[in-house]
Structures are given as structure tokens and as C-alpha cells.
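INFO batch 0412 | record 1 of 1 | parsing
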Amino acid sequence: MNAMNLIAAKSIVPVVVIEDAAKALPLARTLFDAGIQSIEITLRTDAAMNALETITRASTGLVVGAGSVVSPEQLIRVQAAGADFAVSPGSTSRLLDEAEKQSFPFVPGAATASEVMNLLDRGYTLQKFFPAEPLGGLAMIQALAAPIRSVRFFPTGGINAPLAATYLRDPSIHCLGGSWFVPKAALAAGDFETIARLAKEAQSVALSAAE
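INFO prediction complete | emitting C-alpha cells
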């Protein structure tokens, strides 16, 4: 199932790595209060699933995604945990089959023209582009989108505050993911004041790009 309608157009999605599940709920509330609409919790730590479940059970107002989903088994787990959508750095036939079997909103990743076209054949008009900057950044996305006009991208990886506005102004970008406004040190220290300030700055960039 395509996740295009779940993630707001021209929005910035925080892509977060949570080491301590106790930080999940205050983080979600901080981001929502700053105007952020969606969050992607990556499955890169032992605390990730607990963090995901904590946020979804609390009804924070955020659209909650699970990132770094690389297997059908993970997809089943995050759906059971209450995630609204899942994101993968790439895709496999098994993963796509499971997403379609479950009718679960999914953003598969693509980095080449063939991958983009294959995903479009399966109905995925929103695709992740990762790691965005190492793969050529916006210039590469524009090169892919020029002949394949029906695709919209969700780039993540290496994007920072100065780059965000440039990405979001491009018509091929539906939304983008970033971690610069949820610094690891601030999250570890429980410094939600700093995160709130940076998140508000990121949200103002998204709002400006949407005008």
C-alpha cells in the first residue's frame, strides 16, 4: 500500500535512533508541539521496538513510521506494534509481497532507474532515496525524475538544515528525512529544549518551502 497520503507533502520527517525507550514519549511530544507531523523510528537499536510501541500507544498526534525495515518479519512486527507506515532503505520481492499482503503503508527504497521503475510497476509512487547525499543528492534525484515523472521521493541520509530548503523546493520531492534537529547528544541528555528549538527551525523551513 502506498504511503503517499500518510506523510504530509513538503514536510520534514525526523529520522531518529533511540537508545533509551524512556526518552521516546517526551521526544514525540516535543516534536509534535514544535509542529512536526511525522516521525521515523529506525530499527537500529534494542530499544527501537519498545520506543515505537510507547509512542503509538500514547496517541501523541504524530504519524509514526518504522525505519530501516529490511525483512518481512520486521514489517509484521512494526505493524503489530502500531506503526502507521514503514520505510526501507531498499526493497526485496519478499518485503514488497508482505507489505501488499498486509495492505500496510510502505515506502521502499530505490537508487537506480531500474529500481524506481520496478517499484512504480508495483504502485509505489513514493520511494525512499537513501543515502541521499552520498548517492548524488538532489542532482541525482532530478536526473531520475526527469524521465520518470510519476515518482516522488523521500530522501534521507546526509541532509542538513542548509540543504533542506533546496530539496523541498524541487517538485520531485514529496518529503525528506533528517536527524540534524534531533542531535544524539541532546537526546541522550534529555535536552528537549534544544530539540524543540531545532525542530521549530526545521518546521519553519518546511512551511516556507510549501508556500
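INFO post-check: Residues 11-210 form a domain with the TIM Barrel fold (CATH 3.20.20.70).
INFO record closed
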